[in-house]
Design brief:
TIM Barrel; alpha+beta; elongated; seven-stranded antiparallel beta sheet; five-stranded parallel beta sheet; Nicotinamide phosphoribosyltransferase; N/Namide_PRibTrfase; nicotinate phosphoribosyltransferase; EC 2.4.2.12; Aldolase_TIM; Nicotinamide_PRibTrfase
Length: about 475
């Protein structure tokens, strides 16, 4: 039996990048509704402060596209058989009246800004009184900014933990800090886009990454030539392919290939026995070769309990290669360093740094590689993100919109036309009960209007706001 191929649906149709039920909402707002206002906030969660990032990518990548009649027809052909009504006339108005440009206005805090929870981060309103339901239609897409914000926020908070340890134990903390948390997360995320956007969110705070997708996203959407850096590194296959009896030859090859003066190169050293590899292969057979190369060997444990393995590695390397005591009285390994890339999260980082301090070693001896915990072990509820309508214009009159469930007071939403301002030295959300305001003293900016991206920040500018 020959089957007729179904028509292919476009990957670039913005209209169908929403939740199904959104298509019925144009029939649900009160008659006479001409304006809606929605906002994004973090209602709490793991961290008390968020670092805003990623909206520019979403706007530039998606909402600068033009809606076409073909998109409208395609969306209707999918949504109506799916069981939902479809606002065909409204979408054709976007095409015919607005030239395909979305009649929306988006305001937001500058990317890279640190904002306490419970404050407005972004707002959206319509610029065509015939199409107020568009504000809700794009909630699905715009809400996804929770992901880069959450990754950026977690990364920033870990930066504070590492930075504090470096300040206490290192002579030049400012030079060390940007490369102390390296992104290993590309293979552990759900998509190429998640890899690029999540890894770039991390690079707002640090400069080390093995996620090439982040560099592409940074160049295309944030005017960054090379957003992050990596070093040559071994994996288990490149070591074990030599065979257990030739493990030392695999290590010798790494020194020969990459051990140049001033260089850094990482070698996973637990394929068989980490303690033996450090004490015998690195610490005896290859010790002088490592020293004479002029490069810095970075030994990587990759199994066992992370704090214990790092402690073992640092102590063993200190015994074999010696240490130098820095100006702050802490030991710095000679010729070698350690990178821990397995089981790394905020908790293990904190424990490892505490162990270094107890043992009298500087935090500069260890770098962290973070994968799934950095880019994948977060969700929308990590910081409890919400996108809610808070104001409307109905029959020409302003109306506050909010929810206040008695079963969960923490979900009460804000009402008003919202803005972020500085009052008494603190960021706070200000509510206007009218659409007729020019937002005096605002910390937010209009970044998008009627299909055009109005503000394009560089990664360098964004990093500077931390």
């Amino acid at each position: 039996m020959t089957r007729t191929a179904l028509p292919h649906l476009s990957d670039d149709n913005l209209i169908i990048d929403t939740d199904s039920y959104k298509s019925s909402h144009f029939l649900q707002y009160p008659p006479g509704t001409t304006r809606l206002f929605s906002y994004l906030e973090s209602r709490g969660g793991r961290y008390p402060v968020t670092r805003f990032f990623g909206l520019q990518y979403i706007l530039d990548r998606y909402l600068t596209r033009r809606i076409t009649a073909e998109m409208v027809e395609e969306a209707r052909s999918l949504i109506e058989p799916h069981g939902e009504p479809f606002p065909y006339d409204g979408w054709m108005r976007v095409v015919n009246v607005h030239g395909g440009r979305l009649p929306l206005e988006v305001r937001a805090v500058p990317e890279g800004t640190l904002v306490p929870i419970h404050n407005v981060l972004m707002s959206v309103t319509n610029t065509d009184p015939e199409l107020p339901w568009l504000v809700g239609w794009f909630e699905t897409m715009l809400m996804r900014v929770w992901y880069p914000i959450t990754v950026c926020t977690q990364s920033w908070h870990i930066r504070q933990i590492i930075g504090k340890a470096l300040e206490q134990t290192c002579d030049d903390a400012a030079a060390e800090l940007p490369f102390k948390l390296h992104d290993f997360g590309s293979r552990g995320v759900s998509s190429r886009e998640s890899a690029g956007l999540g890894a770039l969110a991390h690079l707002v705070n640090f400069q080390g990454s093995d996620t090439l997708e982040a560099l592409r996203v940074a160049r295309n959407h944030y005017d960054a030539d090379i957003a992050g850096f990596s070093i040559p590194a071994a994996e288990h296959s490149t070591i074990t392919s030599w065979g257990k009896e030739h493990e030392v030859d695999a290590y010798r090859n790494m020194v020969a290939q990459f051990g140049k003066p001033g260089s850094l190169y990482s070698v996973v050293s637990d394929s068989y026995d980490l303690k033996y590899a450090i004490n015998t292969h690195w610490g005896e057979t290859l010790r002088q070769l490592v020293i004479d190369s002029g490069g810095t060997l970075v030994v990587r444990p990759d199994s066992g309990e992370p704090p214990a393995m790092v402690r073992l590695a640092v102590r063993a390397l200190a015994a074999k290669f010696g240490t130098t005591v820095n100006k702050k009285g802490y030991q710095v390994l000679n010729h070698v360093r350690v990178i821990q890339g397995d089981g790394v999260d905020e908790q293990t980082i904190t424990q490892i740094l505490q162990n270094l301090l107890i043992d009298g070693f500087s935090a500069e001896n260890v770098t962290f590689g973070m994968g799934g915990a950095l880019l994948q072990k977060v969700d929308r509820d990590t910081q409890r993100f919400a996108y809610k309508a808070s104001a409307g214009l109905i029959d020409g009159a302003y109306r506050g919109i909010y929810k206040d469930p008695v079963t969960d007071p923490g979900k009460r939403s804000k009402d008003g036309v919202l803005d972020l301002v500085m009052e008494n030295g603190r960021m706070t959300t200000r509510a206007y009960y009218t659409f007729d305001t020019d937002f005096p003293g605002s910390l937010m900016r209009t970044v998008y209007r009627d299909g055009e991206l109005l503000v394009r920040d560089s990664l360098e500018e964004i990093r500077g706001r931390g």
